[in-house]
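Below is a filled-in request sheet from our internal design queue. Each sheet records the structural input a requester submitted and the sequence that came back. We keep these sheets so that new team members can see what a complete request looks like end to end.

REQUESTER: design group, bay 2
PRIORITY: normal
MODE: inverse folding
CHAIN LENGTH: 97
BACKBONE (tokenized):
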């Protein structure tokens, strides 16, 4: 009977030890999975930051180009107005004479 009890106790201790080992392995696996997921999220966030910086650079170029074109358009219209004013002045002088 004592042998049976001792064997039962040893079996129970071995089972407890096996449960501890399995729990530790499971915890380590969960930690690795969480770390991998965190790494993937960080990488994705970094890629998004790079994309946003690229978009900002592109938008700055578009803005600069738009401003240049708008300035060119305004300058051309001012020149047309000045030409028209000079022509009207010439026309008035011709009529006066």
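RETURNED SEQUENCE:
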């Amino acid at each position: 009977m004592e042998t049976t009890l001792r064997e039962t106790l040893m079996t129970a201790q071995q089972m407890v030890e096996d449960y501890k080992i399995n729990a530790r392995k499971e915890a380590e696996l969960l930690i690795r999975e969480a770390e991998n997921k965190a790494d993937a999220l960080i990488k994705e966030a970094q890629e998004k930051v790079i994309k946003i910086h690229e978009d900002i650079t592109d938008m700055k170029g578009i803005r600069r180009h738009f401003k240049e074109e708008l300035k060119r358009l305004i300058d051309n219209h001012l020149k047309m107005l000045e030409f028209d004013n000079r022509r009207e002045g010439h026309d008035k002088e011709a009529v006066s004479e």
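SHEET NOTES:
- Helices lie at 2-96.
- The mean pLDDT is 93.
FILED BY: M.R.
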